[in-house]
Design brief:
Blueprint (H helix, E strand, L loop, with lengths): L15 E6 L3 H11 L5 E7 L2 H11 L3 E4 L8 H10 L6 E6 L4 H10 L3 E4 L4 H12 L4 E2 L1 H12 L10 H6 L2 H4 L16 H10 L5 H8 L3 H15 L4 H10 L4
Parallel strand pairs: 1-2, 1-3, 3-4, 4-5, 5-6
Helix pairs in contact: 2-3, 3-4, 6-12, 9-11, 10-11, 11-12
């Protein structure tokens, strides 16, 4: 498995183990063909329904699950909820769907998915998505991130704490993973470099792109990102981006 999200391989115990979940065999075969061209990725198994996905996740213990949404027996969103809720599993779920729908996006985030990718994405995007998810980062395309930000920013300060507007406006996974607004308990004490990194995160740049922009090493960027998430009390990069936009740090 890689410990690096942006394409450059760093030695680690083994390849990224992927579970492919889709009710179309042709789609699974296509994903398998794409992923298995990469030396650091192996397809550990396949499933054609949500029920099979839950069982396969438990049996195979993959690092990343590429999950379709619309499937028989149990859809991918419910399967994601069950997999993420299982404390014995450590798989990152990337929703891969034909449908560019906000309700799928927000339900996927609420369910605990680590990424959202459309099936018309290119092969290189699928490969990158698997690596990003395996490295523990959230994967949202810039346009998708903007939709999350727009929904969250539509709330008045403090509205995320309770009430039906919160449920309608933003997925719980994002709302509950963002720390207080800058005006609430005081702005988190970010260093100048951490503020620069947060600003670039808000532009949807990857770690490698941030490293190039700031002329620092990839490992240094990862350290800064971790520090930013900790200080903001943000669960993931998406939550940090939302915070940055809500507090004028983007």
């Amino acid at each position: 498995m890689l410990s690096k999200a942006d394409g450059a391989a760093i030695a680690s115990p083994g390849p990224i183990r992927v579970l492919l979940v889709d009710d179309h065999a042709v789609m699974r075969a296509g994903f398998r063909m794409i992923l298995e061209t990469e030396h650091d990725i192996v397809v550990a198994g396949e499933a054609s329904t949500g029920v099979e996905a839950v069982d396969a996740a438990s049996a195979l213990r993959p690092d990343v699950i590429c999950m379709d949404v619309q499937m028989p027996d149990m859809d991918g969103l419910e399967a994601t909820r069950r997999i993420v809720a299982d404390a014995s599993l450590d798989a990152a779920v990337v929703i891969v769907t034909t449908f560019d729908r906000d309700d799928y996006l927000f339900q996927a985030l609420r369910a605990g998915a680590s990424g959202f990718l459309l099936k018309n994405a290119g092969p290189e995007e699928l490969i990158a998505a698997v690596r990003v998810a395996a490295a523990g980062d959230a994967l949202l395309a810039p346009e998708v991130t903007r939709r999350v930000i727009e929904r969250f920013a539509a709330l008045e300060p403090g509205a995320a704490a309770s009430g039906p507007a919160r449920e309608q406006a933003v997925p719980e996974r994002v709302a509950t993973s963002v720390g207080p607004t800058a005006g609430a308990l005081g702005e988190p004490q970010l260093t100048e470099r951490e503020r620069e990194v947060l600003h670039l995160l808000a532009q949807a740049l990857s770690n490698a792109e941030i490293a190039r922009r700031l002329h620092i090493g990839d490992a240094t960027v990862k350290t800064h990102v971790s520090n930013v998430l900790q200080k903001l009390r943000a669960r993931d990069r998406v939550a940090a981006v939302v915070y940055a936009h809500r507090n004028g740090l983007a």
